[in-house]
Fold this sequence. Notes:
Blueprint: E1 2-5, H1 12-20, E2 26-29, H2 43-46, E3 54-56, E4 62-64, H3 66-76, H4 89-109, H5 119-140, H6 153-161, H7 175-185, H8 188-199
Parallel strand pairs: 1-2
Antiparallel strand pairs: 1-3, 3-4
Helix pairs in contact: 1-3, 1-6, 1-8, 4-5, 4-6, 6-7
The structure holds glutathione.
Glutathione binds next to loops.
Amino acid sequence: xxxxxxxxxxxxxxxIIMRELGLEFELIRINNKTKKTAEGGNFLEVNxxxxxxxxxxxxxxxxxxxxxxxxxxxxxxxxANLAPSNGTWERVRLQEWLSFITSEIHGGSGPLFSDExxxxxxxxxKKKLFKRFDFIVNTxxxxxxxxxxxxxxxxxxxxVLTWMPNFSIDIKDWPVLHxxxxxxxxxxxxxxxxxxxxxxxPV
Length: 203
Ligand SMILES: N[C@@H](CCC(=O)N[C@@H](CS)C(=O)NCC(=O)O)C(=O)O
């Protein structure tokens, strides 16, 4: 398997999961501006949508969209318990969280990366994001992880929360979220993924 990634981007989430599961894979860095891959190829030929993450399977199939990728990976090693079994209510709850993270937190922070959006407009997006943070806090006040046990939803939320300093948002203002991030950050797979991405050469 090959994981196409850009350092510190949302591709960190499936990257962490692959390490949590002990899977063998090749990491291929891409340049998100030029869409060149570290192999010298055109990333648009891998994922015509032009964004990471993209997972290329050994049979040549390419899977995109973070929530789909992490569920596919978790199901490869069910005994690791990173996702409840398909067809169970608990799995639907996991999908509910993945959808929430992808649309409300990941998608919700997208405009904050823009150089073209004025600060006062960004403040409107931030306000909405903060409401979503409060909702997450309501859950994490009572349990360590989103579905109760550590699952593929947690490295995804962790990854998008690492972006907040870029927007002058201090996650320490939500102590429950801050402690949650610390819990995830100390995991061996998380540290290994962060280091491996940092050690790759720019494309
Ligand atoms: N819907 C996609 C969004 C992926 C996404 O936003 N990728 C960003 C990095 S976090 C990216 O590569 N952006 C570059 C671009 O859109 O050109 C998913 O959830 O996987």
